């Protein structure tokens, strides 16, 4: 009996046959398959969007006007962000110094002075470096834009030639608009000639006695200022011309409603752009200037963004 009890209590011998694996059902595979398809769809959409974006950017940069509009907006955006970041860093440092001075005042005896040199936080250091990088990159972009305008006098000649041919072919002439446009041509030519001379002198290309020394530096500075004044004159004439076009609109030929809307939208864009350029050109027309870098950046974003918007839309397939 004892042997029978021991045999009954002993554990069963392990079976050599493997246990069957659990069988997955189709309902368990469905969520994993749907998630994989969703991820693949997201990747395809991302690649498609990136492809379209790069192609449109390539089309935009393939034209001089598109490149200038993009770089103009980029340069002033960097100026705007750098100005606000610089203000933020300065304000944080001033608050830190003021708090330290308040705390130290109670511990100092009459007549004592505390001189301390404390490193700023790593976050402020990074922001300061980023601000410096943005300012320098904005300067590089601005310098490039001035460089590619060295041959803009050829475009101004083509513009003047087109205005002359258009006037000679018209039977009914608008003498007011004609005078305004020719004034714009003259102002643009003077602006470009002065800017070219000042830029080449700054780069040392023009290095004769007339351009070097203290007198040469003052002359170059005056050329920069006067180039901006002629630019301001062009902007002012363009605003007046747009006002004249608005006043004469009723006398023009009849247009469809769609054409009227398109023409009105183009008119408003030109007006907004020129109103944004106006204070900046006046700012650069003085030796000291009168608006901050933050305002220069904000106005430049508006002025450049108006042109960039149209040119970006034109790149759509």
TrEMBL record:
Residues 1-37 are annotated as: Disordered. Coiled coil: none annotated. Residues 1-10, 22-37 have a biased composition (Low complexity). Residues 11-21 have a biased composition (Pro residues). This is Peroxin 11c.
